[in-house]
Specification:
The protein contains six helices and eight strands. The chain is α/β, with parallel strands linked by helices and 354 residues long. The protein has a domain of 209 residues: Rossmann fold, CATH 3.40.50.
Length: 354
């Protein structure tokens, strides 16, 4: 058979093989499960962890004993950065939800202030006597939900702020090389790699709900690294030639970096507002070595317990003498505080245990 004949024979064979391959993936009629095709992938659902999640959970044993209520307000994206194709913003709009998850990990008593639309609608219906009573029996005429004053607990503090920085390509480095023999059919190869760094920044405020005094301010930033490696080989083997290349690239997730910054900020705010002793997470809770056992006096009164117009009473068990210096300078400036590298908190990597 001539080369031209072989080429004409190969073309229909390739088309037939491609059709058979596609037939194994997609069917024109649905299967017994109601699907035309089975989706790929089988990755299980895992906890959405950061290196600070273990530290937050460690604090829950202390925090859950005290009735300070915290709400989360708007934590907006103030970077102004959007995708080049106009598909949306580069930074998540769910920073407030991440802060709520972080507070929940720490066992903080939260009250909802971020989305009260359903509660407000229920209150409107109840005020118009449109919602039946809450009894188990079938509703009867005149049986409607009563509105009782003072049933909604107030917050003592709330968190607001925003994502204020997103800086691309703070620094980048790259290297590339080519090499091979000098003959026409000699083997040649290429090798290259690059790294670049960006960062994301966050500013949060902790505000006293009754007095609107700013009780705490935190500004944190986290750098994000990306890398790319590629290699290729070009060679002649007889009358054929081969050009093979491979590469790998990775970028630390931007939204996970935002979550990490938020969890670190929440960790510091919770530490300060509850006056958690240093290294408390390294001590077994509720044991003889626990600095705050269950039977200890409750040293953290709420703003509601103070006289009208008076500041929040000081704790009966005072914080360390250098509390302000510790929390605002040495502790908060420590880049390793509370992350998964702390042996007392376990060893966590991003979104999972090592």
């Amino acid at each position: 058979m001539t080369p031209r004949g072989r080429r004409h024979l190969i073309k229909p064979l390739v088309l037939v093989l491609a059709a058979l391959a596609l037939e194994g993936c997609i069917s024109p009629s649905a299967d017994s499960f109601g699907r035309y095709t089975a989706p790929i992938g089988g990755s299980p659902v895992i906890p959405n962890e950061t290196p600070y999640s273990a530290a937050l959970r460690c604090l829950s044993g202390v925090v859950s004993r005290h009735p300070i209520r915290i709400a989360v307000g708007q934590i907006a994206d103030y970077t102004g950065k959007i995708e080049s194709d106009g598909s949306g913003r580069k930074v998540t709009a769910g920073a407030a939800l991440m802060a709520m998850s972080a507070l929940a990990k720490a066992g903080v008593h939260m009250v909802e202030r971020f989305d009260t639309s359903v509660a407000e609608m229920e209150l409107k219906y109840a005020n118009n006597k449109l919602i039946s009573g809450d009894g188990d029996e079938a509703p009867r005429p005149g049986d409607f939900r009563k509105i009782v004053a003072g049933t909604i607990p107030g917050s003592d503090y709330y968190i607001v702020g925003g994502i204020t920085e997103l800086n691309f390509n703070i620094r980048s480095e790259n290297a590339n090389g080519d090499g091979g023999g000098t003959a026409t059919n000699a083997v040649t190869g290429t090798l290259g790699g690059s790294m670049y760094v960006m960062n994301v920044g966050l500013d949060l405020r902790l505000v006293n709900t009754e007095t609107l005094e700013v009780a705490d301010v935190i500004s944190y930033q986290k750098q994000i690294i990306g890398r790319q490696v590629s290699a290729g080989v070009f060679d002649f083997l007889g009358t054929n030639f081969f050009d093979i290349s491979a590469g790998e690239s990775a970028l630390e997730p931007i939204q996970l970096a935002v979550r990490s910054v938020i969890e670190r900020a929440v960790l510091e705010m919770v530490d300060r507002i509850y006056r958690v002793p240093r290294n408390v997470c390294a001590v077994p809770l509720n044991t003889a070595d626990d600095p705050m056992p269950d039977n200890a006096p409750q040293p953290y009164p709420r703003q509601a317990d103070a006289a009208p117009g008076a500041p929040l009473p000081l704790p009966s068990q005072p914080a360390p003498a250098n509390n302000q210096e510790t929390y605002n300078e040495a502790t908060r400036q420590d880049p390793s505080r509370g992350n998964g590298a702390d042996s007392s908190l376990g060893n966590l990597s991003l979104r999972g245990a090592l």
